[in-house]
């Protein structure tokens, strides 16, 4: 008696397909089929389209499930996923993440200390980060919020070369907050 071998010719079984349906996962009756070079094969059943993809040793991938009928493309899905991941990696490399750095002041800050803090804020703004400036009011200092506004205005003036005020000084409980954003680089 001869052993029975089953020939299983399905590609891309080990690739996870979270966003697209491929090969046997496609259960629609009619599909509009396009080849990998853009040639339209017309509307046909899923089994016929799968047979054509198998003959070409490629995958049948549903690329537009919302269309009537759904559009499927015959292509090498493994190569497509590899190129897509490569594009995503390149896009991620080119983007710059903006951080928010915090500078804390007090109502009784001296002029030189304020200049030092402004220099730190300017350094952060040069790097393209946003700066959160905060003043914590303690005890009886809550009776003088106008002094906090004066210090914030002076600080914003010191940082005006590299940044602009994104959110003006506002009292929030016992804290006064102001946000500075870096000026666009020319």
Descriptive overview:
The chain has 186 residues and is of the alpha/beta class. The protein has two domains: 23-83, Translation initiation factor 3 (IF-3), N-terminal domain (Ubiquitin-like (UB roll), Roll); 100-182, Translation Initiation Factor IF3. Helix content is 31%, strand content 28%. It contains four helices and eight strands; from the N terminus they run ββαββαβαβαββ. It has helices at 46-55, 77-94, 111-126, 145-158; strands at 30-34, 40-45, 59-64, 71-75, 100-105, 130-136, 163-172, 175-182. It has a four-stranded mixed β-sheet with strand order 2-1-4-3, with helices on one face. A four-stranded mixed β-sheet has the order 5-6-8-7, with helices on one face. β5 (100-105), α3 (111-126) and β6 (130-136) form a beta-alpha-beta unit. The radius of gyration is 31 Å and the shape is rod-shaped. The model has no long low-confidence stretch (mean pLDDT 84).
